[in-house]
Specification:
- This protein has nine helices and twelve strands.
- The chain has helices at about 45-55, 55-70, 90-95, 145, 170-180, 200-225, 260-275, 280-290, 295-300, and strands at about 5-10, 15-20, 25-30, 35-40, 75-80, 80-85, 125-130, 185-190, 190-195, 230-235, 240-245, 250-255.
- The strands form three sheets. Strands 1-2-4-3 form a four-stranded mixed sheet, with helices on one face.
- Helix 6 (about 200-225) crosses helix 7.
- It is of the alpha/beta class.
- Helices cover about 30% and strands about 20% of the residues.
Length: about 300
């Protein structure tokens, strides 16, 4: 039976209900205030309407929360920090007088991560490379990860310990190093971002996302010991990332770069772990916990935003 989708009006709230081959009915509300319901395919429209109406109070409460958290038109969130965006002719004057981020202002020095400058344009940013061969810290081989049957093993894999672990960059260091390419076009001053145009800011955001994700993949690959052949950054609507473990492809959301850096670290590690475990069973999260013991706290960082 083909999936049927209908729109229901719940006291002025539009709810998109999809009749699917599922056991239980569920309602989801995304941060953009879209309300969607999944109900068993054999339900009647009236039963679906009654189910949704029974959760009206929760729907209204959740929508109110998201509306309060919504950014203003002239705001953008980058690495967990909300900035006021200012575009236009006055940018040139500000650039001459305002303090600007510089990689030399931070203590990272030669140990700070270096970012590539490829793929700064386009709706889907692609970087094709074998990250395992690209300056990643050496690590003790993960014998569980290299075993072709490890994804199905009942014994949790033990993550390898990098011989020379890398030091994660701070949000300021990341901004500083990526702003270098946009010198004269973007200035970050406190909680304000001045830019020559919205188009230039969009380019910077994509550039920042691609380079940050690539660097975090290199940071965590020594634990996974599996090759990544392609990283694609695109404007995903419903997920933070995905992984094709067979091909070694990692997909990450452009919107992820807006979130707290600690959460970004978790999502990257989460997707890399799928190169070993093609599921979300206990051994999957046990593996993550050995590398990132506070991963549950990191997940909670985005629940209120």
């Amino acid at each position: 039976m083909a999936e049927q989708t209908i729109s229901l009006n719940l006291g002025g709230i539009c709810v998109v209900a999809s009749f699917k081959r599922v056991k239980y009915a569920r309602i989801r509300i995304s941060p953009d205030c879209a309300v969607r319901a999944s109900v068993p395919w054999f339900w009647s429209v009236e039963r679906a309407r009654e189910f949704i109406a029974s959760h009206k109070a929760w729907i209204e409460k959740t929508l109110a929360k998201y509306e309060n958290l919504a950014l203003k038109e002239n705001e953008s969130e980058i690495l967990g920090q909300i900035y006021e965006l200012k575009f236009g002719e006055k940018f040139a004057d500000l650039w001459d007088t305002a303090p600007k981020f510089s990689a030399q202002n931070f203590s990272g020095g030669d140990t700070a991560p270096k970012f590539c400058e490829s793929g700064a344009s386009g709706s889907a940013l692609k970087f094709d490379a074998n990250f395992a061969s690209d300056t990643a810290p050496s690590a003790t081989p993960n014998t569980n990860a290299t075993n072709a049957q490890s994804a199905q093993s009942a014994t949790p894999a033990t993550p390898a310990t990098p011989a020379t672990p890398a030091t994660p960059a701070t949000p300021n260091e990341i901004l500083a190093q990526n702003l270098t390419k946009f010198n004269g076009k973007i200035a970050v001053c406190g909680n304000e971002i001045y830019c020559v145009s919205e188009i230039e800011f969009a380019k910077f955001k994509k550039f920042l996302a691609l380079n940050l994700y690539k660097d975090l993949i290199k940071l965590y690959l020594p634990f996974v010991q599996k090759p990544v052949h392609r990283l694609v950054v695109r404007d995903m609507k419903t997920r933070w990332g995905s992984c094709n473990s067979t091909k070694g492809y990692i997909n990450l959301s452009l919107k992820l770069v807006e979130k707290d850096l600690r959460f970004i670290h978790y999502v990257v590690l989460h997707e890399l772990t799928h190169l070993i475990f093609a599921h979300h069973r206990r051994e999957f999260y046990d593996f993550i916990a050995r590398i990132m013991p506070d991963f549950k706290e990191r997940i909670n960082l985005v629940k209120n935003r």
